[in-house]
Design a protein that fits this description.
It contains two helices and six strands, in the order ββββββαα. It is mainly β and 116 residues long. Strands 1-2-6-5-4-3 form a six-stranded antiparallel beta sheet. The longest helix is centred in the C-terminal third of the chain and has 12 residues, at 94-105. It is globular, with a radius of gyration of 13 Å.
């Protein structure tokens, strides 16, 4: 892990999301990421247009950005970001990751490398 700052705790919306690799976090904003190309992806909550997001420092996939939700009930996700727990923490128990997300990832905003 390169431990680049990716988000601030005050941008965290939910710790209740899941992805195919386990737990995930929904954020309003993230920093130091590069957006990949948009693609349509079938998820448990329906079809979404998403773009994978990569750490701007090590280029590792760390999650995705919701570009568009095709179901009305999912529109709140548009423009929001998912950070996958397994991509952020190596060998850290889930409970410890939940309580230390600020310490490991959000102690301050670094250079904003997001792309539209």
């Amino acid at each position: 892990m390169c431990k680049t700052h990716l988000a601030r705790l005050d941008e965290l919306i939910s710790k209740s999301f899941h992805c195919r690799h386990g737990k995930a976090y929904l954020f309003n904003e993230v920093v130091n990421v590069i957006c990949g190309p948009q693609e349509n992806r079938k998820m448990t909550t329906g079809m979404h247009a998403v773009a994978d997001i990569y750490c701007a420092r090590c280029l590792r996939v760390v999650g995705w950005k919701y570009m568009e939700a095709f179901e009305q009930s999912q529109k709140y996700k548009e423009g929001k970001f998912i950070l996958e727990r397994t991509k952020l923490f190596d060998d850290v128990p889930e409970e410890a990751a939940d309580t230390s997300i600020l310490a490991l990832r959000g102690s301050g905003l670094a250079r904003d490398s997001r792309q539209p």
